[in-house]
Amino acid sequence: MFTIIIATHDRPLLLKRTLESLIAQTCQDFNVIIVSDTAGYLPPYQELTQLDGRFDYVIRRSGKNGPAASRNLGLAFAEGEYILFLDDDDTYRPGHLAALKARLLRDKPELLFCDFQVQNEDRTAYPPTALSTQSISIADVSFDSIYVRNRIPNSCVAYRRDVLAGVRNEADLILYEDWDFLLAAMHGRKLHHLATDGVVIHKSQATAPENMRRGNSQDDKIVEVMLQLYRKHPAPNMATRQARQALLASAGVVLDLAYF
Fold it and tell me: Which residues are in the Glycosyltransferase 2-like domain (predicted)?
């Protein structure tokens, strides 16, 4: 049913927690592809043993670091009917895949997204200490709204595999490669929502070392990359163009409507 692709980068203990959440799933109709972008990757043998028959590949790829290229390599081997991307520091609650499967079997939607929980935590020791947990509903996200900004975490989308024919992650993007990927997959498709919060997005302090290699250290590039994506994925209607303009204006960036 599912192929779960996990891109990982030097976070072996957090990856172990992610795999433990897969081991605990009440639905075991999945296989896992783990792709590391570092030479020092050591597979989590104990957890993989418990996933015997449900992981096909553990790959250490060459090239520059970053999740986009790792996810693309995973896609090249994916065979499940639905493709899921799971970040190496996020987890699923035990009934998540069962809830997804029950919904997906009803009418085989092309793209399905779900709600989630955010767990703030202290990662100075292992296992991390949970500080707070909040359920987040994104039921109000619409097809058009994603052309303005993306509020759907990467770990919350189920892609029917045929939808991803020719769709790949842009490895040259500094930020928002998951947003770009979702927009590309959405072209000509329908988006469906499932009201379940079985995905847990784990967050540590923005200034923590594990966060500085990604978006938190690239705040000065946000507008530049947003405009790049706006040009790449034209707004589907005038209302969306105006919403794009208003969003950037609220951040102090005033541009003519022709930019959107």
Answer: 3-132
Q: How many domains does the chain have?
A: 2
How, if at all, do strands 30-36 and 2-8 pair? parallel
Q: Terminus-to-terminus CA distance in the chain, angstroms? A: 39
Q: Are residues 136 and 238 in the same domain?
A: no
Asked whether residue 191 falls in the same domain as residue 201, the answer is yes
For residue 133 the two structure tokens come to: 């947990």
Out of 202, 217, 232, a domain closes at 217
Distance of alpha carbon 189 from alpha carbon 193, whole angstroms: 13
Q: CA 91, CA 200: separation in Å to the nearest integer?
A: 5
Question: Which residues have CB under 8 Å from 74's CB, separation 6+?
Answer: 3, 5, 6, 7, 33, 35, 57, 59
Is 0.90 topped by the overall pTM? yes
Q: Please list, in sequence order, all residues whose beta carbon lies within 8 angstroms of the beta carbon of residue 225, skipping any fewer than 6 positions away.
A: 173, 174, 175, 176
Residue 8's identity, in one-letter code, is: T
Q: What are the two backbone dihedrals, phi and then psi, of residue 214, each rounded to the nearest 5 degrees? A: -115, -140
Please report the DSSP string for 110-159 in residue order.
Answer: SEEEEEEEEEEEE-SSSSPEEEEEEEE--TT--HHHHTT---S-GGGEEE
Distance CA 256, CA 26 (A): 52
Asked if 230 and 206 sit in the same domain, the reply is: no
Q: Write out pLDDT tens, residues 2-22.
A: 999 999 988 889 999 999 999
Range of 21's domain?
2-217
